[in-house]
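Open question from group meeting: does this chain pack into something compact, or does most of it stay loose? Before anyone orders reagents, we agreed to write out a predicted structure and look at it together. Recording both the input and the output here so the notebook holds the full record.
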Amino acid sequence: MYRVIYSSRATRFFSHQGIEALKVTCRRNNAEKGLTGILVFHEGRFFQVLEGEDDVLLEMMQVIGKDQRHTALQLSEHGVIEKRAFQTWRMGYDMPDTLPAPPAATFQLRDLLPRDSRYRGHDPEVRNHVRHFLSSLRNLPQAAAG
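Structure tokens returned:
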């Protein structure tokens, strides 16, 4: 089992529909390849943790590296793991409160903010990476400010 953690910057604007389309594609591809993890999108930045078999992750990272929807990919961690921090794959991003509740594989960014959030994963190292990413954000959701 292997884990990759990276962040990057979007090269274009993503509408709610664009994020939903990305989520559907990622969810399908990751399920087919046995990958789990988390993808967070906020302020034009992506943060992703991917876990799975090393050859599958290597192939996926080659695809991700060539994806023109983002740039400035920074690898935070990669290596062998004993067990997954995430049992499923989920995506989180900031959505207007006027939109309906997100489907099961999606969560609001504000759900990631509490220290004890289940969305941060079950591995202390991964939780540190999530905390570091969150601390780099300038504009956290208003609902999380309180």
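Observations to bring back to the group:
Residues 142-146 have pLDDT under 50 and may be disordered.
The longest strand covers residues 70-80.
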